[in-house]
């Protein structure tokens, strides 16, 4: 059966980050991981923040509670993390499709496959990363890192349809298209619940899939198969 399935955070951005009991999990401490950490600390000083980073030099940095850092591969840590819970908010700041990598690691009988060439023509401003991965964007310019993701584009002032809505409607014969929405928490900072990754992995049964992670303007897509 071929279908399009959308997995999204059901809460509003405000409710995603409401309350000091919220735990934020930042996957990756590169440039944008740091921006996310700084902004979350300013806006939610009492919330627990866990950073996942495999680079030993970066993970050696010392943080004061409620911020902590765990050294290791982000995907592996999300798969086997007794300290994390389904309602925790994952902020993907790694240079790959974290949701797709999670599914690949969850199921032993999965692997990346080539994205059909016709998929490229369906995407706005596509850039091929490799044969299995494409990134795309509503923008053909460099966006500000603190975009508030409003009704109108911060740069052009024009309205644009959310990319995740457009991806949901895509039809690619022979493939199941799954869209994981990344909801904005703060300007330049977005993510989804860890439980969304659990549900995504559950949906991936036998067949070929394109797993997309998308905010309002930018997306990353990975083609996989499960035998």
Which short descriptors sum up this protein?
227 residues; seven-stranded mixed β-sheet; single chain; alpha/beta; six-stranded mixed β-sheet
How does this structure look, described?
With 227 residues, the chain is of the alpha/beta class. It has one domain (4-226). It has eight helices and 13 strands. The protein has helices spanning 13-16, 31-43, 56-59, 74-79, 98-106, 117-120, 163-168, 194-203, and strands spanning 4-7, 23-27, 48-53, 67-71, 89-92, 110-112, 127-130, 133-137, 176-181, 183-186, 189-193, 207-214, 218-226. Strands 1, 6, 7, 8, 9, 12 and 13 form a seven-stranded mixed beta sheet that branches. The chain has a six-stranded mixed beta sheet with strand order 4-3-2-5-11-10. Strand 7 and strand 8 form a beta hairpin. The chain starts with a strand and ends with a strand. The model has no long low-confidence stretch (mean pLDDT 91).
Please outline what is shown here.
This protein is α/β, with parallel strands linked by helices. It is built from 8 helices and 13 strands.
Compile the SSE list and pairings:
Elements: E1 4-7, H1 13-16, E2 23-27, H2 31-43, E3 48-53, H3 56-59, E4 67-71, H4 74-79, E5 89-92, H5 98-106, E6 110-112, H6 117-120, E7 127-130, E8 133-137, H7 163-168, E9 176-181, E10 183-186, E11 189-193, H8 194-203, E12 207-214, E13 218-226
